[in-house]
Design a protein that fits this description.
- The complex is a heterotetramer of chains A (159), B (165), C (984) and D (437).
- The longest helix of chain B is centred in the middle third of the chain and has 34 residues.
- With 165 residues, chain B is of the alpha+beta class.
- Chain B has a four-stranded antiparallel sheet, with helices on one face.
- Chain B has two domains: 72 residues, no CATH class; 69 residues, no CATH class.
- Chain B is 55% helix and 12% strand.
- In chain C, strand 10, helix 6 and strand 11 form a beta-alpha-beta unit.
- Chain C folds into four domains: 227 residues, 3-Layer(aba) Sandwich (Rossmann fold); 187 residues, 3-Layer(aba) Sandwich (Dimethylsulfoxide Reductase, domain 2); 118 residues, Barwin-like endoglucanases (Beta Barrel), CATH 2.40.40; 226 residues, 2-Layer Sandwich (Alpha-Beta Plaits), CATH 3.30.70.
- The two termini of chain C are 39 Å apart.
- Chain C has a seven-stranded mixed sheet, with helices on both faces.
- By secondary structure, chain C is α/β, with parallel strands linked by helices.
- With 437 residues, chain D is an all-alpha fold.
- Chain D has 16 helices and no strands.
- Helices cover 73% and strands 0% of the residues of chain D.
- Classes of the chains: A mainly alpha (159), B alpha+beta (165), C alpha/beta (984), D mainly alpha (437).
- At the B-C interface, loops of B face strand 31 of C.
- Strand 1 of chain A pairs antiparallel with strand 1 of chain C.
């Protein structure tokens, strides 16, 4: 009965799932495809807080510079990054994955549960331009929580 | 309308009723009336059976009850949240919703059925239009039998402007 | 600390209407959010996780340790330091609120200099230091006599730096005035006179079976409130005859006295008569009090001159009650007699303090509950006579440079002193104060000091305790440590012979190393590292024994001249409160959180008794004019039975009390005579709308706060009624709370903690007038009048997390429901604001957002990122600090273990000095909360409604048994009991 | 029989539609302006938050919910007169039921605004309706407010159907005698009605069933509204007598409102011989009867509290009668229980002015009744520390007046465009009288 109703809901609400917004422009055309797909750099290498805290973390300018001091330092975009580090002015990336303020999401719990990054972020290793893949709607979150038997208590995410 | 019938207008519903009875006696089976209000004398004289649209109406109400319970119980189970220590499926409050939905569905179905049956009746048992029949005249229309005899009978009961239409 | 503290993301801002628009459409609204990476990753910081630092509290001189919780490089909350023996993890309302001084919007953003146009203008630190250096150097060349400094007590490195820099410029120790408005110098003076020790004793209330306080508001401001509240509460945790009995002696029932079992409502100034009367009764051989100190006999002879009639006349208290108190103290050993507090300190404060010390002495309390030899006394406050002479010198133009460090005599000292005027005569006024005040109005140089949370330093509040001030974040503005500035000034001038350090941080570290060596650490460097982790050096220190100087007591055993009664006048009682302190500081939380007794916030008031109110024809909220020889103020009246009919009481912390007080000084101790004048009282004929949280203080017999007698500390527990519903299931935990009303002092520390933890907005007085205060937790207080006068019962009231919560089923959109862990959840983003839940809440603990909250920058940096900031139109309430529950659960889950009992502590429970609030899992029968819930005193408020709250209150204990007094033979003294350790 | 009884009826009633007059236009403008001012006040409230109201803790509901209950109450007599009296075959209903039904529809339309107005976040009011959404969230059917949503919206739909169905034959009659835009308007309302026997056959049956549905609905709606209070645990609200008490009160206030509207209407439209003194007298008797029921309920509330043994309940009732709001309470008693007693006098029932005054006062009294029940109970809850009074603020007054403007705007528009007395039923009635009397 319950499953039937949930399924009915999913169908009824299906038409109303928000579509992901177009990707924002970035100060430097950073390619995940190049870094992850071709050079096989793991996600946690740059997003270093993923398994430790709520926030995955944006690589620090020092992290970028750490490699690019030596690698591809002659390319103009890389020079932009290196120059920003040396000038002490971090790049301002435009956020791709935005959750409302009243949602408390933690990367750490999801990684601990054995989810792969791609399950929510899509085939990042194939993306030249990072864009949002899932709708990031509440229904999307809840559907996965239900499927995996995770808590659907409101206070799991809202508090 | 294959052949024209006879229409007579009456100022007095009682006379119209008498005319209807006389027409029935004369063997006219298809006597129709058009009137601004449901004058009981005329309705009685026409002698049609009571409308049975109430059966559909009541089944609409029953559907409302069923939907009411299914909806309230279903949505409560779909995402069970405990409030005030009460059971997830709390029937007493759901009765209220089911009742309101039974009235809502009953009344809506009643309206739809009435609209359909009235429109159907209008079409199947059409009466020539005369604006006075919505004002202060009762129109009696004889659609079968001998038109001349019908005209005669209508006139004899005080029918005004008896004409073939 | 990182160079780039901006993390830029995951900072929760307001839940705007945009959020609503989000929900309205199918596509979440996009707001261009920037992700700004760190340049270099800061050590230790994991974005989204808290980082804790240990430091010291500078709100008063008690010296409590602080744990500062930071997120992404910002301090978001202050809590006590559990390793610190004084605060033991608790922190009072004022201590917690110092965080708002850090984020005060009007804090100086950098150094300022008064230009030729008479206006303060921003200036560089180099220029400011150069300006000060040249001025001071000029003075040095003239011998340094024109230099003066007024500072708060600096018991650590800062004081040492000040003294040596001043000395280097030729200014002697007498030219540095230490100002502590709420100091109790009479006690120090009495110690000196009686024992030859110019020091403040340390009191151990936890070991005492009877506590008598002469106006000593030890749960609010007196000496060490957090510590003494905890100690009193320890005595309240004992059941039966061992429960500490507390007697309050003062003309007004202070908030501290709401914990008292008995109130001797003596006339203002009559405390001395009671203290001497008490001494007389105790030493009178007729009363046969056994086991007295050997000096008692000698005292008895002198005390015979004090007649019972005179005691009654002076104090207005029947002799029988004094005698009863004596009988109680003779029976219940050890005891402690405390005082005088500010409200009782008059021109004869030292004789009173001496009488109190003698009472402790003859009862054998010294060495058991009254401990000498623990006062570190590196920087005691100066006698106020010095302040008067300083003002005279300023007026005479003899002071040419005045340095002011964290002091504001203009706001905290009687206006009669006319400090501001004298200030205008000083050619160079330099202030290190962080906020604009009466000093900076006339200052020539403003050199804003770092907030204590931004600076290094140390404190020595008592022997064996050295607290470290450690920076918890980078300074918000271009401020500098005042000590470093002084050193820089000296370096600028170049005074090599003074051998001054150049770097304050290194100086502090050097002193730390010395301290590590002094306490005999095997590895001083490791000890120093450990100390910075623990927040200080804590080593046991033993009290010393003292001997009463022969004959010293004799001078204090007379009542002195009787005051001439003034016709038609009321005694003016000036009192400090837990929130308002001495004044001079205006922090939103301390203004917003209501006073414990009156529940008034934002404004001052005048307390009068119902009889006085009738006489004047006024009611609460009517304005009365109070006139003393020193001045006249108009204040709204608050009528309640906790003040004598012949007194009017005015709180400190506003401009009113300094206006009314004459600058009278206790000649022996040099302390301010707070209790020195009488006042004329008239109705001003107008009325104001009082911002008052609980206008009604009458319980109407509803037994909200239940009481049990000391002899039978148990309530009836009828069997639970049958339920129509299936028993609820809690698969893992069922969170619950127990609140011991016998331990609650009403100090409001929990309320401030809740404001800080849960982003509760400050709404201002208008909101309170209209019944829209946003506090999730409030202290309810009810007055009752028994045969011995007024009683106050306080009770923390917060969401009860009822199992059968009336609020839950009435919400049409499931914005409130019961979680599987027994919490009554409120989902802000689902709430549409019907307010039905609040209407149906019998405890009225839900608060509605009547408008959007305001957190003017940089106060918004204090917001807890783990708690949503609620927008207008949304209901909110106590969550049992669900973010802390989740944090601990998450940690336990990561470590693969169950959550331990006591691991989850909501903010209110964490900070409660009396440890009245206990939180835990009701599922675990061994948890502390389960044990307390089974206590005989346990009850649920409004249990007749069968809401099954998760909060068990433990009834207050009434100790009305008073031993017969009079001159009769008292019962034989019980065997004295050894001192007991505080805490549980 | 030379002159049938119904010949002149249509012209007389249709005449009401053709005589707008400057006074009528002015009244419509005044009503519309009031509604606009109310809307402006609501806009301020949405922008600044509920801070502009006088609400506080503990008084979370006051004027807006009072208005809601008041207007739902007003909406009650319409269906009562048209449905219940139809089933009971009460003849005095015919001349007055159309006005009453219109009042019902507009009353519910007004009442329905207030649950939205009183919300803290009215822009999310649609969350109160259960609809499939991407969040997969539903509503709480255990909440009385959810019952309200169902009851009030059902009531609105059913009473609108009832009104429109009743208008169909009249619109057909007017369609056939008018031209221009009016003809087009009436054509829409007539929905192709011709008046044939087959139409009437189904119509009569359906109408009976509308009445049969509407009757329990009337009682359920105000019972549900009363449950908003009765199922709470607030002393002064938590009472089992509330449903009948509220239903009686609703009929009482609704009847008083019908009389308040009919007396000026019949004078303005010269309908004295259609709505005769006999009709008025019957209505006055219903007002008197329901007043007695309401007075009995008042007494019962106090008796139950006094003998019920719950001290908080006693305290609240005592506060109601003797506390801060006592003047309002006693005004309410005067208006609802004492002044209507004058209707025992035949002369009073015969005097249109006297009756109008009594009914206006009943309207005031019934508004106060809801206010007093709401506010005195809330401001005197179980925790004495939190007792606090409430005072109305200008925005609330503005919105309340706006609701009157809104109601009267629609009502005045209605009487100008659609027949305010049922033409068909009056015709039938006339014939009935001729043949049977």
């Amino acid at each position: 009965m319950r499953a039937a109703f949930v399924a009915l809901l999913a169908v009824a609400a299906g038409g109303c799932q928000p579509s992901p917004p177009p990707p924002p422009s970035q100060p430097v055309p950073f390619s995940h495809k190049l870094h992850v797909g071709q050079n096989l750099i793991g996600c946690g290498v740059c997003h270093s807080y993923t398994a430790r805290g709520p926030v995955a973390g944006i690589p620090t300018m020092a992290r970028c510079n750490g490699c690019h001091r030596f690698v591809s330092a002659d390319k103009p975009n890389v020079q932009k990054v290196n120059a920003a580090f040396e000038a002490g002015k971090p790049l301002e990336w435009n956020r791709v994955y935005v959750l409302p303020d009243h949602v408390y999401f933690t990367h750490e719990r999801h990684i601990a549960a054995g989810l792969r990054c791609q399950q929510c972020h899509g085939p990042v290793e194939e993306m030249d331009v990072m864009h949002q893949v899932p709708p990031l709607s509440m229904g999307w979150c809840v559907t996965c929580h239900r499927q995996r038997g995770a808590s659907t208590d409101c206070w799991t995410c809202h508090k | 309308m294959s052949e024209p019938g006879v229409l007579g207008l009456f100022a007095d519903p009682a006379q119209a009723a008498a005319a209807v009875r006389a027409l029935h006696e004369r063997g006219h089976r298809d006597v129709r009336a058009v009137m601004p209000a449901p004058f009981s004398v005329v309705v009685e004289a026409l002698g049609y059976p009571r409308s049975r649209i109430d059966r559909i109406t009541l089944s609409g109400a029953a559907t409302g009850v069923a939907i009411g319970f299914a909806f309230t119980i279903g949505t409560s189970i779909a995402w069970p949240l405990v409030t005030g220590g009460k059971p997830i499926v709390s029937i007493p409050p759901f009765v209220i919703v089911a009742f309101e939905l039974s009235v809502l569905f009953g009344a809506t179905v009643n309206l739809l059925v009435m609209a359909i049956t009235a429109a159907r009746g209008r079409r199947l048992r059409a009466v020539p239009f005369d604006a006075r029949c919505s004002d202060d005249r009762v129109g009696i229309y004889v659609a079968d039998g001998d038109p001349a005899g019908a005209e005669e009978t209508l006139r004899s009961f005080g029918g005004e402007e008896v004409r073939r239409a | 600390m990182g160079d780039e503290p901006h993390e830029g993301m995951s900072r929760r801002t307001f839940l705007q209407i945009a959020g609503a628009a989000t929900a309205a459409g199918c596509t979440p609204a996009r707001h261009a959010e920037k992700l700004v990476p760190y340049l270099v990753p800061p050590e230790h910081i994991v974005p989204g996780l808290p980082l804790f630092y240990r430091t010291a509290c500078r709100a008063c001189d008690a010296g409590c340790g602080v744990t500062a919780r930071t997120r992404e490089g910002r301090v978001i909350k202050l809590e006590g330091n559990p390793d610190d023996p004084i605060g033991r993890g608790a922190l009072c309302a004022r201590g917690q609120a110092t965080l708002q001084a850090l984020y005060a919007p009007d804090r100086w953003k950098g150094p300022m200099r008064r230009g030729g146009d008479g206006k303060l203008a921003a200036v560089s630190w180099d220029d400011a230091i150069a300006a000060l250096a040249s001025t001071l150097d000029d003075e040095r060349k003239k011998g340094g006599r024109g230099i003066r400094m007024i500072t708060r007590g600096e018991s650590g490195s800062a004081g040492a730096v000040q003294k040596s820099v001043l000395a280097a410029f030729g200014a002697g120790p007498a030219q540095r005035l230490v100002l502590d408005p709420l100091d109790a110098p009479a006690i120090r003076a009495a110690s000196k006179a009686l024992y030859g020790k110019d020091e403040m004793p340390v009191f151990d209330l936890g070991a005492a079976r009877s506590v008598v306080a002469f106006g000593a508001d030890f749960a609010e401001t007196w000496l060490s409130p957090v510590e003494m509240s905890r100690q009193l509460a320890a005595g309240r945790g004992r059941v039966g005859d061992d429960r500490t009995r507390f007697t309050w002696v003062a003309p007004r029932l202070a908030m501290t006295a709401s914990s008292a079992d008995d109130w001797l409502a003596c006339r203002a100034g009559g405390e001395l008569a009671i203290a001497l009367g008490l001494l007389r009764w105790l030493t009178d051989p007729k009363n046969g009090v056994g086991d007295l100190a050997p000096e008692a006999h000698a005292l008895a002879g002198r005390l015979g001159a004090i007649t019972t009639a005179e005691v009654e006349r002076r104090s207005g208290v029947p002799w029988a009650r004094v005698a009863a108190l004596g009988a109680e103290l003779s029976r219940r050993r050890p005891s402690v007699v405390l005082g005088p507090g500010i409200a009782s300190a008059g021109a004869a404060a030292t004789p009173l303090a001496a009488a109190i010390a003698l009472a402790n002495h003859v009862l054998g309390n010294v060495g058991r509950t009254v401990l000498y030899g623990l006062d570190a006394q590196p920087d005691p406050p100066s006698p106020l006579g010095q302040l008067r002479s300083l003002v005279e010198e300023m007026r005479a133009g003899q002071v040419r440079v005045l340095l002011v460090g964290h002091a504001d005599p203009a706001a905290t000292m009687p206006a009669e002193l006319r400090f501001g005027e004298a200030l205008a005569k000083v050619p160079m006024v330099v202030t290190f104060n962080a906020l604009p005040d009466g000093i900076s109005e006339r200052a020539h140089l403003v050199l804003p000091d770092n907030h204590s949370l931004e600076s290094f330093g140390d404190l020595a509040p008592r022997k064996g305790v050295t607290l470290l001030e450690q920076p918890t974040m980078t300074p918000l503005a271009d401020t500098r440590s005042a000590s470093q500035v002084l050193l820089d000034v000296a370096a600028k001038v170049g005074l090599p012979e003074a051998k001054l350090p150049t770097d304050y941080y290194e100086f502090v570290q050097g002193r730390g190393a010395d301290e590590a060596k002094r306490i005999g650490a095997a590895d001083p460097a490791a000890a120093q590292r450990l100390a910075s982790e623990h927040g200080g050096y804590f080593s046991p220190a033993a009290p010393t024994t003292v001997t009463l100087s022969a004959g010293a007591a004799e001078g204090f055993l007379a009542l002195g001249a009787a005051p001439s009664p003034t016709e038609g006048a009321f005694d003016l009682v000036v009192f400090p409160t837990a929130l308002r302190g001495a004044g001079g500081i205006d922090l939103p939380w301390l203004r917003e959180v209501p006073d414990g007794i009156t529940t008034i916030n934002w404004t001052g008031w005048a307390e009068i008794s119902p009889a006085t109110a009738k006489l004047l024809g006024v009611a609460s909220g009517d304005v009365v004019a109070i006139t003393t020889p020193a001045g006249r103020v108009e204040l709204p009246a608050y009528v309640w039975p906790g003040v004598r009919d012949d007194a009017v009481a005015v709180p400190l912390g506003g401009p009113e009390a300094p206006t009314l007080l004459p600058f009278t000084v206790d000649p022996v101790s040099g302390g301010l005579a707070w209790r020195s004048t009488s006042a004329k009282l008239t109705s001003a004929g107008r009325r104001v709308e009082l911002p008052i949280l609980g206008p009604n203080a009458d319980e109407h017999g509803r037994e909200i706060v239940r009481t049990v007698s000391r002899a039978h500390p148990s309530l009836p527990h009828p069997p639970p009624p049958p339920s129509m519903y299936p028993a609820p299931e809690y698969p893992k935990h069922r969170w619950a709370m127990a609140i011991d009303l016998d331990r609650c002092t009403g100090c409001q520390a929990c309320v401030v903690a809740c404001y800080a933890e849960n982003n509760v907005p400050v709404m201002g007085p208008e909101a309170t007038v209209r019944g829209r205060n946003m506090g999730w937790l409030r202290i309810e207080r009810y007055f009752s009048v028994g045969k011995d006068g007024a009683r106050v019962d306080t009770m923390p009231m917060l969401c009860q997390h009822c199992e059968s919560a009336p609020c839950e089923p009435v919400c049409p959109v499931y914005a409130t429901y019961h979680t599987g862990e027994g919490l009554n959840a409120q989902v802000y983003n689902r709430c549409v604001g019907t307010r039905y839940c609040s209407n149906n809440c019998p405890y009225k603990v839900r608060v509605f957002n009547w408008r959007d909250p305001e957190f003017p920058a940089p106060l918004n940096l204090q917001l807890n990122p783990d708690v949503t900031v609620r927008s207008k139109g949304v209901m909110e309430k106590c969550t049992f600090c669900v973010q802390r529950i989740r944090y601990a659960e998450n940690l336990a889950r990561d470590e693969g273990r169950p959550v331990a009992d006591g691991e989850i502590v909501p903010a209110c429970a964490q900070t409660c000095p009396g440890q009245a609030i206990v939180f835990g899992d009701a599922h675990d029968p061994a948890s502390r909360v389960s044990v307390l819930a089974r206590d005989g005193r346990g009850y649920a408020v409004l249990d007749e409604l069968n809401t099954q709250p998760a909060i068990t209150y433990l009834a207050r204990v009434r100790d009305d048994e008073r031993p017969e007094g009079g001159e009769k033979q008292p019962p034989a003294p019980e065997a004295p009991r050894g001192p007991k350790a505080g805490g549980r | 029989m030379s002159a049938p009884g119904f010949a002149s009826i249509q012209r007389r009633i249709a005449a009401t539609l053709r005589a707008p007059g400057p006074l009528h236009t002015l009244l419509i403008i005044v009503a519309a302006s009031m509604a606009i001012i109310g809307g402006w006040c609501e806009a301020i409230q949405i922008r600044r938050g509920m801070v502009v109201s006088g609400l506080n803790r503990p008084v979370g509901w006051a004027v807006y919910i009072t208005d809601f209950v008041f207007w739902v109450g007003i909406a009650h007599s319409g269906t009562l007169i048209s449905a219940v009296l139809f089933l009971l075959r009460a003849r005095f209903r015919t001349a007055v039921y159309r006005v009453a039904e219109a009042m019902t529809v507009f009353g519910v339309m007004t009442a329905g605004l207030f649950p939205m107005i009183h919300l803290g976040r009215p822009w999310l009011a649609y969350w109160l309706f259960p609809y499939p959404n991407q969040r997969q969230l539903w509503v709480n059917f255990r909440s009385p407010l959810m019952w309200d949503v169902f009851a009030v919206s059902t009531y609105f739909i059913v009473s609108s159907i009832f009104l429109v169905v009743g208008i169909v034959p009249d619109a057909a009659a007017l369609r056939d005698t008018t031209t221009g835009w009016r003809r087009r308007l009436y054509s829409i309302f007539a929905a192709g009605w011709r008046g044939t026997d087959e139409e009437w056959r189904h119509y009569l049956r359906a109408y009976l069933y509308f009445a049969a549905f509407a009757t329990p609905l009337v009682f359920s709606v105000h019972s549900v509204v009363s449950w908003d209070f009765a199922v709470s645990i607030l002393p002064g609200w938590h009472s089992t007598i509330f449903p009948p008490y509220f239903v009686a009160g609703a009929i009482f206030s609704g009847m008083a409102m019908v009389v308040t509207l009919l007396i000026p209407l019949r004078r303005a439209f010269h309908l004295q011989d259609v709505i005769t003194p006999w009709h008025i007298d019957r209505l006055a008797r219903v007002v008197l009867f329901t007043s007695l029921i309401v007075s009995y309920s008042y007494a019962l509330e106090f008796i139950l509290a006094a003998r019920g043994g719950e001290s908080a309940e006693r305290s609240t009732l005592w506060y109601r009668a003797a506390g801060h709001y006592a003047p309002l309470f006693w005004t309410m008693i005067a208006c609802n229980s004492i002044i209507p007693l004058s209707l025992f006098s035949r002369r009073m029932r015969g005097s249109t002015i006297g009756l109008l005054v009594v009914c206006l006062l009943v309207n005031v009294g019934m508004w106060l009744e809801r206010f007093v029940i709401l506010v005195t109970s809330l401001s005197h809850d179980r925790i004495p520390f939190d007792w606090r009074t409430y005072a109305v603020r200008p925005i609330e007054v503005g919105i309340t007046l706006g609701s009157f403007g809104w109601f009267f705007f629609w009502f005045l528009l209605f009487v100008r465009l659609l027949p305010s007395v049922s033409i068909a039923e009056m015709k039938e009635e006339a014939v009935h009288e001729v043949t049977h009397v």
